[in-house]
Amino acid sequence: MPHATAPPATGHRPRWWTELPLIAVVYALYSVGRLLVRGDVSTAVDHGLAILRLEQALHLNAEHPLNRLFTSTPSLGIPADFAYASLHYLVTPAVLIWMFRRRSAAYRAARVWLMNSTLLGLVGFTLMPTCPPRLLDASHGFVDTMAQYSAYGWWGEGASAPRGLSGMTNQYAAMPSLHVGWSIWCGILLWRHSRHPLIRAAGIAYPLLTTVIVMGTANHYFLDAVAGAAVMGVGALLVRPVVRIADRVKAWGAARFTGPAAVLFAGRGEDGRSTVAGSVSAATPPNVSTGCKTSPGERIPGQRTTSADPPGPAVGGTAAGDDADAAASDDAPAAAR
After folding, report:
1. What are 268's strand-pairing partners?
2. Which long-range contacts (CB under 8 A, 24 or more apart) does 189-192 make?
3. What is the pLDDT of residues 273-293, one digit of tens each?
4. Which end of the chain is more exposed for a tag (fewer CB within 10 A), N or C?
5. Model confidence over 96-108: pLDDT tens digits?
6. Using 50, 70 and 90 to split pLDDT, how confident is the model at 68?
7. In whole angstroms, what is the distance from residue 228 CA to residue 331 CA?
8. Distance (Å, whole) CA 49 – CA 53
9. pLDDT band at residue 134, thresholds of 50, 70 and 90?
C-alpha cells in the first residue's frame, strides 16, 4: 500500500490533544452509524445465503470445516472467541499509538487510511446488510461458537458485544469484515515500519489468523474477508486526495481567521511552534532599522570611506571640514580629538 504508508509532506508533527478528539469523534460516528443502518432481517438473510451459494459454486466454502473444528475442539474455539471479541479493540489502537510515538512522519497517512476504510465499511453495511453464518438457520450447518462458549467470556449472543448488550451492536453488519480489514492495516504497518523480525512476522500472521478466526467462529464468510481487504485497498488509494483536501482546508482557515482561531487550522513545526507565526514572518520582511533613519550625509558608525570618494563635500552635501569639527567636539571619542 504505497499510497497509504508514504509520509505526506505536511511539515508538522501530530499533536495528541487534537488527534485524540478527532479519532474519538470518527469512531463515535462510525458506531452510531452502524446502529442506525440496521436493515431488514429477511434482506440480510437473503444476502447471507446468496454469498454462501456463491462460495459453494466457486469452491471457496472454508467456513463449514473451520466451524466444525472450532465447535468440536474447545482448546481452539475458546481462544478464537476471545481473539474475535477483543483483539480488534486492543491491537488496532496499540498500532496507532505506536505509529504516533515512533513513526510520526508516517502517522498521519496511516490514520487517514484507517479512517477512510472504516467509513467505507459503514457504506458497505448500509448498502448490503448481511446475516453472518452463525445467525442462519441451523439447517445450513453452522454453530454459533460465541454462544457455545459464552460462559468462558464476557460476550453473549451479540458476538463481541458484552453479555446483555447485544442490542447495542448491529449483528448484520458483516459485509465487509472490518475485523479482517483492520488486521490488514495493522499487519502492513508492522511489516513496513518495524525493524524487529518477530514483530514483522506478527504483521504477516495477524491478518491471516484473523481471517481464519472470523470464519471458524461463523461470524463472517470468506467473501466478507475479501471485501474487507478491498475496502482497505480503496481507503489506501484515497489517502493522498484526502490529505490534500485537509491541507487546503487548513490553509484556507489560517488565511481567513486570525488570532486564536487561526491556531485551529495551523499545523505545528518540528519545534512545536505554530506555523501561523512562521507564515506571517515569511511574508513580511524584517524591519532591521527598527524605525531609525539617518540624516543626509550621516554615516553608520564604523562605516569606512573608499578611496574613490572625492575630497571636499561628502555625498550628503556636507563639507569635509565638518568631520574635523566633529572630531574636536566634546562628544567625540578621545582618540578622535
Report:
1. 274
2. 189/5, 189/95, 189/99, 189/110, 190/95, 192/5
3. 444 444 444 444 455 555 555
4. C
5. 999 999 998 999 9
6. very high
7. 85
8. 6
9. very high
